[in-house]
Recover the amino acids of this structure.
């Protein structure tokens, strides 16, 4: 049933629509005001690329393209986890450093007050 | 014949949901609102389009792998959304202007 000309044309049309949507979300990722906007745009591109790969695997009757789509899903997941994890860990380290500096300053202040009292 | 019609209808619905997601990223003006729209494409768009392709293909290994992709993305997408939202809340300097933030007990 899938080898009729109408179904093939329809699948190609869906691919073209998704390609236009990918271009639009790349524009969104470039225009995004914050870095999380860009990450969200890249996430959208990844999901639509997976859909396009699955459609093409039906269009070309090639089963291996679905394997590549699985790989792409895992890759986009890993990329986003690594990017956001990096930001979170860096931010946490910064907060800890600030807290340590504040404690140090407080201790120095206390020592100075004790010194002036005696 | 009925198989082809159902498959193509599901595929069309999936592409429509992807359109809605991209329009949503343009209509909203803040990241946490935009994530609301993109989660639609991650879950429902992927499920509908791949369900349409599975109906077109029938019962093969290829369609089993497509089901595997849907299961993986449904497990991974909430994790990705959570991490992106957490990075946003941690790095935004005036998060209180955008939304209400409830401070939580910090893990050691």
């Amino acid at each position: 049933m899938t080898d009729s000309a109408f179904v093939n044309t329809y699948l190609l049309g869906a691919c073209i629509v998704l390609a236009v949507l990918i271009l639009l979300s790349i524009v969104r990722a470039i225009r995004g005001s914050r870095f999380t906007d860009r990450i969200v745009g890249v996430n959208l591109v990844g999901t639509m690329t997976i859909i396009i790969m699955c459609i093409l695997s039906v269009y070309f009757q090639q089963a291996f393209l679905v394997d590549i789509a699985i790989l792409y899903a895992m890759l986009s997941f890993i990329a986003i986890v690594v990017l956001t994890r990096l930001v979170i860990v860096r931010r946490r380290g910064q907060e800890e450093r600030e807290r340590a500096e504040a404690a140090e300053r407080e201790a120095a202040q206390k020592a100075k007050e004790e010194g002036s009292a005696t | 014949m009925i198989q082809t019609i159902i498959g193509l209808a599901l595929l069309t619905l999936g592409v429509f949901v992807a359109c809605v997601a991209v329009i949503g990223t343009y209509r909203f003006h803040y990241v946490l609102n935009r994530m609301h729209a993109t989660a639609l494409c991650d879950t429902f768009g992927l499920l509908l389009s791949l369900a349409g392709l599975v109906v077109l293909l029938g019962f093969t290994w290829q369609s089993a792998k497509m089901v595997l992709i849907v299961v993986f993305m449904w497990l991974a997408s909430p994790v990705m959304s959570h991490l992106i939202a957490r990075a946003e809340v941690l790095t935004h300097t005036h998060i209180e202007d955008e939304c209400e933030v409830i401070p939580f007990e910090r893990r050691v």
The CA atoms of residues 30 and 97 of chain B lie 11 Å apart. The radius of gyration of chain B is 18 Å. Chain B has one domain: 2-98.
